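User: New here, please read:
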Amino acid sequence: MQKVSRVFGVTLNDVALAAITNSYRTVLLDRGEQPGYDSLRTLVPVSVRTANHFNIADNQVSAMLPLLPVDEADPVQQLKQVHERLRHAKASGQSEGGSAVVLAARRVPFALSAWAIRLLSRLPQRAVVALATNVPGPRSEQRLMGRRVLELLPIPPIALQVRTGIAMLSYVDSFVFGITADYDTAPDIEALATGIEHGVAQLVKASGRRKSS
């Protein structure tokens, strides 16, 4: 994924969200739905901690609500549109508005508690239907009770209109996706996981073609 971000000049978070977009598009098509421009409003928490505050363990988190481009079929165009929509959301002040909402949750272990999701989901037009968050984990190997920690798995929260949650967690050299879903409304969670893998593979293949051309 880092190779994809370098080749296309985007962030690792953009690549992950593009793979998620591709997966949601596939799931919608498999359900017999036609993905539209406004089919998927996603809550995307972002860190607002400055570089000189990374050693402070508090929840300096903001939130944006971009529409992921599930109406676009081409994975490279999905990536470009994800990058542009996130850039526009940041420039338009969505993250500043989101940080005011999240401010009261600062003492909660996970910044986006069900309370915060409930408040953020009271938006006009289409409700929030998905959560996607990227959590930077330890860059060095950790130990617990004298044992090596081989893997860390993220568990994102869901509540009310938020039916699926996807968290991305980096640990040492690994990057892991964790998915939580409401089974009554999203029983095809395995298809969502498979779709993310496929989305990443498509972007890796496309980056190889771009680099060799």
